[in-house]
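Follow-up to my post from last week.
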Amino acid sequence: MNIHIPTPLRAYTGGQQTVNVPGATVGEALTQLVGAYPDLRQNLYTGDGKLRSFVNIYLNDDDIRYLPAKEATATGEDDELTIIPSIAGGC
Amino acid sequence: MLKLSHADYEALRAHGEETYPHECCGAMLGHATPDGNQVLQIVRAGNTRTDRAHDRYNIAPEELIKIQRQARKLGFDIVGFYHSHPDCPAQWSKTDFDEAHWVGCSYVITRVNQGKADVTNSFLLTGTNEEDKQFIDEPVEIEMEKTQA
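User reply:
Got it. Predicted complex:
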């Protein structure tokens, strides 16, 4: 399946904006991703292995945090994962 | 250096005037070049912080996904974001810094003073991770003619 990489993380994927990885679930695909590009890990996960709070991962149009099976959600070859860091702030 | 057309520059400032006294926000699409980020299109976004929109902004991830898809279709990247500071300096705040995660992107801030766009500044988020990130002042070059993609 394809995983779309946001601009700030492409430094860790050799400049690729889309990476194709195998994986029967969201979690497997993400494991494959950080296995292939280990420097991504600290940008996506905290030291204890939790997804960083500002990192959003969408399976097609759904935030994986709100999917019933979360990272165990089954995926197909035509599904897409998108990694999107949050944007917020204010004066 | 951040390069953008005069039309886009005026459009993002006008957005801040339209939403005053609330903060506006949006994304900038284009390309990262050796000389800096080149903006070729700006995209307005909604501010989901309706609880305190006068001093906070947030772009819904769902909207960011759509913007990223739009950029991909155009052959562009997301190279930055803009927002306004109603009656506050055009300077990044602690909140802006804490919530900044797009390393390599330009963060444009416009002070909107009593409803009129005033100073506009850009800050480049540099570093490699959350621990060593920093904002650096970034010159803005306004091009009178829009650069073609």
